């Protein structure tokens, strides 16, 4: 009877945690939309305000991160991966805790409020892992499964993509399938997904896009998008990893010694990219991509490269913020630039191919990439070409950047928590 009771307690813990993660994801999504709207109003009154607001906002965000919410910088996925691998409770708590979750929410919103090219989905992973970790108490035996379940539920709730949440947990977070924990993880994902549905209703992240590749020659877009997107994604990852590990010479040591200087310069760079793009590359990029997909219209020619630069600068600045949504936006820009080479082909499917290719190139998790893009666009007719583009992009990205970005960055957090040998 005691075993039965413990088993049900564990199941209820995962279900309750999933519900809390879903509610947190909905709250963050709502607030993120609000702060981006306020920034749009600001630059609508005076578009050059970003030259002051964005650098200053980056500096404040990095200061608050380093001073009050350490380990909340970046997307948060590397922290969740590192927390899962650590064995010490106190070390895990430094990476996933309610303090970190609160800081992650507040500072991600601050970044979006000042125009950062960042997303809320990666932060939701660390927030979800923190909520589940806290709910589990001090039982070290359950902690790795709780962190994994919270992270997977975070992806499912943030994108309203339950299948992608499960795949992300297996492919990216754990890189293995644990039979004993799988049912509990799926329970948390379902609970998080149902909570999102109950609060905001059923929706598709990028709307519904029924168009597909038509002529035989249109299928050439699959390898082209795969190669271009994969190489671009690999370059992005390599740059972010290099900056995280520190550049050699005086420049690298200066950035390490004066993180606020780096944050200010990155913020200024993002503002300049925003001005050059006609104010299109601030924020997540969600609205621009959704409009392009739903109406079958091209994005501006410079959108992809400027969004790439703005996202790169945001990612290395040290502020909290994710790269999921911005990466999909960069990929959409790449697909939009490739589409004119296929005269008469519908632009929507090629934009989707660009999205999955670049995203797979960045995260180097091809299964997660094609599942998440398929669920977000509700276009099951594109499953095969999207899958092929994702695998091609993954292979090309590995040539440019042998390490996946999240696991490479996770090593930095693991290194800081190694036990001291006595």
Quick description:
By secondary structure, this protein is an all-alpha fold. The protein has helices at 2-45, 50-68, 77-85, 89-95, 98-113, 121-135, 143-159, 162-174, 179-200, 221-245, 249-257, 259-276, 286-295, 303-317, 324-338, 347-363, 366-377, 383-400, 405-415.
- H-E string: HHHHHHHHHHHHHHHHHHH
Radius of gyration: 20 Å
- Show unreliable segments: 418-422
For the termini, the CA-CA separation is 43 Å
Report on the architecture of this protein.
- With 422 residues, the protein is mostly helical.
- The chain folds into 2 domains: 2-200, Clc chloride channel (Orthogonal Bundle); 216-411, Clc chloride channel (Orthogonal Bundle).
- It contains 19 helices and no strands.
- The protein has helices at 2-45, 50-68, 77-85, 89-95, 98-113, 121-135, 143-159, 162-174, 179-200, 221-245, 249-257, 259-276, 286-295, 303-317, 324-338, 347-363, 366-377, 383-400, 405-415.
- The longest helix has 44 residues, at 2-45.
- The N and C termini lie far apart (43 Å).
- The relative contact order is 0.15.
- The model is unreliable at 418-422 (pLDDT under 50).
SSE map:
Blueprint: H1 2-45, H2 50-68, H3 77-85, H4 89-95, H5 98-113, H6 121-135, H7 143-159, H8 162-174, H9 179-200, H10 221-245, H11 249-257, H12 259-276, H13 286-295, H14 303-317, H15 324-338, H16 347-363, H17 366-377, H18 383-400, H19 405-415
Main features:
mainly alpha, 422 residues, 19 helices, Clc chloride channel, disordered C terminus
